[in-house]
Amino acid sequence: MAALSAWFWNERFWLPHNVTWADLADPAPGVEYPKASHLLSALPLALGIFVVRILFERFIASPCAFLLNIHAASVHWRATPNPILEKVFTSITKCPDWRHLDGLSKQLDWDVRKVQRWFRQRRNQDKPSILTKFCESMWRSTFYLCIFTYGIRFLWQCPWMWETQHCWYNYPYQVLTPGLYHYYVTELGFYWSLMFSQFTDIKRKDFPIMFIHHLATVSLISFSYANNMLRVGSLVMCVHDASDFILEAAKLANYAKYQRLCDFLFVLFAVVFFITRLVIYPLRILNTTLFESWEIIGPYPSWWLFNSLLLVLQVLHVIWSYLIAGIAYKALVRGKVKSACMRSGPV
């Protein structure tokens, strides 16, 4: 185990040239540097965030939904219990093609339309109610808004917010402040909670992309904390939080049937998303991590991995931007944005 730990924490991988872990282990009195062990506090925090979410959805989001006349509508037409069709539904396909429909029709001596109706009713049984969607979106919107507000207030006083070269001056001997620690650990705890709850939350079409996104985000936050790239990491987190709460707010307006508000919020979300992910992120974040850091501290093995993770996020940004642009175009042509809000997952 000791050999494995020594191999994993190899100084030549994690740290710039001529820097060792011993140099960071004994800072001056009153000075603290990030330690990988700090990241363990994010796991119980993730559990706490999940508990807060449950309480929030039950005692805050649900009453708000009822005030807006949003209720958990019951399924009026439930599929008749049928072991054969249930087996096909759970293990083969939820949307059978004509070949399956014809075979099942002959096997059960049912009309094809009756088989189709059964599958349609069975699919509707599994759909989450509007109330469930509203509560989930209200929780996400509230958290994203709070953490973005905290991030902006904290970074507004930091020199690296305005001159990104400060992310690398005196690196890696950069002091860990309480504000930066709380910002990082809270973000990491939230994304750990999303990693686990994604399997129980409402399933969306972009589930694989979102799973990769959460995995890359957790890896990036943990990695940047371990080798003290917190300054640029805080900028990355703030940029990503800027548009998320607006999308969730648009969904809330859609569920409450405030169509004009939904339209406005979705357009605002698209504008903020494009500006932060396709302009600020590559021109400010990637520019400083790829070029400014090269000039100030020079590349080393973990530097390459860090930038690779950032580039993975940029690829995802381009994919989502393409999807959002397509949804927005269709919505404008049809004159409805609400369908776009329904299909767009958290980004």
Automatic annotation (TrEMBL):
Its main location: endoplasmic reticulum. The keyword Phosphoprotein does not apply. It is found in: Endoplasmic reticulum membrane; Nucleus. The chain crosses the membrane at residues 36-56, 143-162, 182-200, 262-283, 303-329. It catalyses: sphinganine + octadecanoyl-CoA = N-(octadecanoyl)-sphinganine + CoA + H(+). Pfam families: TRAM_LAG1_CLN8 (PF03798). Pathway: Lipid metabolism; sphingolipid metabolism; Sphingolipid metabolism. The lineage of its organism: Eukaryota, Metazoa, Chordata, Craniata, Vertebrata. Keywords: DNA-binding, Endoplasmic reticulum, Homeobox, Lipid biosynthesis, Lipid metabolism, Membrane, Nucleus, Transferase, Transmembrane, Transmembrane helix. GO terms for cellular component: endoplasmic reticulum membrane; nucleus. Residues 132-333 form the TLC domain. GO terms for biological process: ceramide biosynthetic process. Residues 87-130 bind DNA. SMART domains: TLC. This is Ceramide synthase 5. It is a multi-pass membrane protein. InterPro entries: HD (IPR001356), Homeodomain-like_sf (IPR009057), Lag1/Lac1-like (IPR016439), TLC-dom (IPR006634). Residues 85-129 form the Homeobox domain. The keyword Endoplasmic reticulum applies. GO terms for molecular function: DNA binding; sphingosine N-acyltransferase activity.
